[in-house]
Design goal:
With 296 residues, this protein is α+β, with helices and mostly antiparallel strands. The protein has a domain of 97 residues: Glutaredoxin, CATH 3.40.30.10. A 4-stranded mixed beta sheet has the order 4-3-5-6, sandwiched between helices. Strand 5 and strand 6 form a beta hairpin. Helix 2 packs across helix 8, helix 7 packs parallel to helix 9 and helix 9 crosses helix 12. The longest helix has 24 residues. The two termini are 30 Å apart. The structure holds glutathione. Glutathione binds next to helix 5.
Length: 296
Amino acid sequence: MDGLVFTPSAAPHATRAPCAVHAALHGTPSVRPGAGGAAFGAVSGLVAALVASQMAKPRSVRPRRVKHVCMAVPTEKPMRTTVFTKAALDGVSPGDCPFTHGVLMALKLKGVDYDVVACSPTTKPPWLLQEVGGQMPCVVHQGVAHVESGKILKWIDQTFPGPTLAVPSDFEELVSRAGLFAAIAEYTKNTDSSKDADLLVTLQMALTRFRMHLFSLPIGTQYACGNALTLADCELLPALYVLQNATAPLKGWSLNNLPESDEIRQYYNRASTLPAFAQTCYPPNVALQGWTAARS
Ligand SMILES: N[C@@H](CCC(=O)N[C@@H](CS)C(=O)NCC(=O)O)C(=O)O
């Protein structure tokens, strides 16, 4: 599947503050022992500081559309490894699905050659409905249909050769504890302006938990669990892509409201230059259309 090429902003790599708050996320000793004790207590203070420091200075990683290949929905289960995903509003091209995005990232990282088929509610093939209740993303490989992105990601890592994408045991709960996608989704979907402030604080708390995790890593660490992408990045980066491309236009808030030196902003800028991320993105306008539809 051909995707997008990104023009990255030239963000310098992180210079990490010498603090350790790993325990807040993992309940285990920090990489830098001695500074992690009051981590969760510090969250609200950090959020307050962040709120105060938010200055709307849009500076985005701008995707440049190059080429997009859409396959017609085959009636039979395909022989080639194929990812079935939600269609965009046009009914035929890949839609906004962060779960699919993560799955495609993992397949790319493993070097798997795959096809993508976008299905609308009315074009799902009979076998997809019968075998997996129409759930998507669905990866068909050697005649077997795999669903539920969390399970698919682990299956990809265990099935295909290539670099391990396993999340180190210390960080197993990183994604679920940070709660980033849920917080981004709730805030982005909300149309009741009286709830916006609370939802934004919840989102900032989630970002702060992830930021504290990044702080806890050795200085110079590139990604969420080390210097190579793992399944954790395959979940976190697609969530941040929603923040940057749907939340930003709908709510006027994104990572661009944070200082350029912000750890998460730098992490996102760094990772979004990688082919495994940039070549598996759905277009930004599809993100906006999808989340606009989710609000109505
Ligand atoms: N828990 C599922 C959630 C998947 C999901 O929400 N998929 C949505 C798009 S993001 C979808 O495909 N909706 C269209 C449909 O089901 O027809 C997973 O992790 O795979």
